[in-house]
Amino acid sequence: FYENAFNGEAFDFLNFKWIKDELRTPQKTTWASFAWTLISEVEWATHFHNDARFGNTFPSPKGAEEGVQERYWGGFLFSQAFMQVLEWIEHPDLFEVQNPASRYLVLFALSQFTQLLTMGQVSHSITNRFTGIAELMTTIYFPNDNDIDLEEYLIHQMDSLYESLPEVNTPEEINIAIGSLVRYAFYNNYSLLGDEKKTREILERLEKITSNLLNLEAKTFIEKIHLLCALLEANRITHKLVFLQRVIPLAQSFLENYESG
């Protein structure tokens, strides 16, 4: 965990340091909480990896580059994400699976995180400073394995997770599964270590899942929202108008309920 090293002042950023407390009782969490946290950290880390100052921030310290404070927080968020990924891999007993959708969420989050590791440059920047952080942290976590390829290591985790994905049935499960498989297929196609056969296999699985949308009924408001999102994404990736045709009456029902309410 991360704490102030000296005086206990929460915003004394110059004195922060990482602390590993072996006496702390491990806290259990869920796959879904891990996935949503990882997704958020990667998104915000990417936004903070900026070559220029942005937002309402204090001026950069004298002699420092523009954006140094933003990049510091980006590096902090990335480091948090890195440690949480390894915690999930090394201590699976601390993460509880609550429903099928949570497995798909973790696959999405790992795909997003692993791609960030391998990008030559990120948005708002001409570099990717996270790769240097990852190399340093890899030597800390794997001190006896100097030849480890972090991307290969994470790909193995994703492939194992993909092979164990369960069937999905509810609007929420299907909506999350579609987004997850699209993200996983995109990474697999993007990566130099990707496998064309695996990409085709993922797309075939997507085709099967999206076909279930045509007969799927949604009863509650939340279920209808998930169904609507799933239909729109299915239309986007398959270009089949049949999905869009189901969207129109569903969207109209939302408008009618809103107007009448």
From the structure above, extract its key features.
mainly alpha, two-stranded parallel sheet, 261 residues, 9 helices
Blueprint (SSEs and pairs):
Layout: E1 2-4, E2 16-18, E3 29-30, H1 31-48, H2 68-90, E4 95-96, H3 100-118, H4 130-141, H5 150-163, H6 171-190, H7 196-211, H8 221-238, H9 241-260
Task: Please tell me about this protein's structure.
- The protein has 261 residues and is mainly α.
- It contains 9 helices and 4 strands.
- The strands form 2 sheets. Strands 1-2 form a two-stranded antiparallel sheet. It has a two-stranded parallel sheet with strand order 3-4.
Strand order of the largest sheet: 1-2
**Unreliable spans:** none
> Radius of gyration, rounded?
21 Å
The fraction of residues assigned to DSSP E strands is: under 5%
Q: Tell me the structural class.
A: mainly alpha
Order of helices and strands: EEEHHEHHHHHHH
The main sheet comes to:
2 strands, antiparallel
Helical stretch count?
Answer: 9
The shape, in one word, is globular
Mean pLDDT: 84
Separation, N- and C-terminal Cα atoms: 47 Å
Helix content: 55-70%
Find the count of extended strands (DSSP E, 2+ residues).
Answer: 4
